[in-house]
Amino acid sequence: xxxxxxxxPWEGVSPGAQGSPLLEVRDLHTxxxxxxxxxxxxxxxxxxxxxxxxxxxxxESGCGKTVLSLSVMRLVPRPQGRIVKGAVLFDGVDLLGLSxxxxxxxxxxxxxxxxxxxxTSLNPVFTIGSQxxxxxxxxxxxxARSYREALPLVIDMLATVGIKxxxxxxxxxxxxxxxxxxxxxxxxxxMACRPAVLIADEPTTALDVxxxxxxxxxxxxxxxxxxxxxxxxxxxxxxxxxxxxxxxVMYAGRVVESAPAGRLFEEPLHPYTKGLLKSVPRIGRSxxxxxxxxxxxxxxxxxxxxxxCTFHPRCPEVMGVCRQEPPPAYEVGAGCVVRCWRYA
Length: 344
Description:
Layout: E1 23-34, E2 37-49, E3 54-58, H1 65-73, E4 81-90, E5 93-94, H2 100-106, E6 111-114, H3 118-121, H4 128-139, H5 147-160, H6 166-169, H7 179-191, E7 197-201, H8 209-226, E8 229-233, H9 237-243, E9 246-251, E10 254-260, H10 261-266, H11 271-278, E11 330-333, E12 336-338
Parallel strand pairs: 3-8, 3-9, 6-7, 7-8
Antiparallel strand pairs: 1-2, 1-4, 4-5, 9-10, 10-12, 11-12
């Protein structure tokens, strides 16, 4: 594919049909080489993101949520990490087939990402204004060709994400901002080009409840005004219930269940999903003197996965076949897919 100097690899490519997914991940395998052997961080992930919707990616730490996000953006650390198989289709174009130069035109423009830790994602030796301006200078040269021309756009963007006195703050360095303000700067950078897909990797972690609500409101406004699809990675099932249209539950490098949010919370299918929902504290239910239900054991080490279904050592509903063969994906309803032998 050749790069059009006037835009992106999508110049001249007809957009996908209205009912087709904007982003689709097919059988994605991302592996890492370590001194202890090969780590299969993603081992056959399938995911569909509809246009203008929000999908929540949930699961325990170590299930592959962040690696999935980095794989879509083609930011897997090299040379240790590599995508060995699969496809990432964005509006009909396989991102894995693009050259690095072509992919740079996509990142930050058509697809943006809010990284998990804003303090380490922002460069400490540059002002926040110069870092937000870089997005416009890379992807919106018709709007700004210099920092001076980009500055009004940056100030407007910082005001949009709720930073007070943006004309003064634009000259601050990351260490001069609170955690919530740094997260807002990351959101400003991700939203600057009104991307078609926004990947948010735990954007509300370690923030107070008020700031969480404000940041979720900003993302919801972006979706409503620009039709942006959001991939929301989080541990907080409460946020997923109130913010997401669809949910994908990951375990040991695979999506074990995906469904519309309402259906998944009302009628979870996979034993792992059931365990996650049971472990959530619920207001109004007295459990005085009782421990919260918990999933026994822990996520297996990626370099030493159990045979068969990777969840079977922790599963309260395990059967003989679970120890022998990994379950395929079964469609059990409209938009509902589950990897469990009980639905064979």
